[in-house]
Amino acid sequence: MAKGGQTLKDPASPRMQAAWKLKDSGDVMAARREAERILADNPSPEDKAQAEELLRRATTPRALYGFALLAAFILVLLVVLAATRY
Other C-beta atoms within 10 Å of 11: how many? Predict the structure, then answer.
């Protein structure tokens, strides 16, 4: 299996090759849209698996939002504690 930002060795179709190239070039939103279009067109099993893999790699993990919320809460808590002390 390829690492996080790398294209798979053998994209199943030219459409998947184009989607992976978009992702590798940094245009993640366009790559996601192309992968969603591929999934909507009743793809072959290989294309379906690769499109789902591309979507998985291009999606922000939910845990990251939780950590950001926790960090914001801690920051606000520290500011409130500092303000009440002085």
Answer: 18
Name which of 1, 50, 43 is nearest 23 in CA terms: 50
pLDDT tens, position by position, 40-53: 988 888 989 999 99
List of E strands, 33-86: none
- Kindly give the parts of the chain with pLDDT less than 70: 1-9, 11
Largest CA distance in the chain: 66
Cα Rg, the chain, nearest whole Å:
20
- In angstroms, rounded to a whole number, what is the distance separating the alpha carbons of residues 24 and 62? 22
Using alpha carbons, select from 45, 44, 49, 58 the residue that is nearest to residue 1.
49
Burial class (CB in 10 A: 0-12, 13-18, 19+), 36: middle
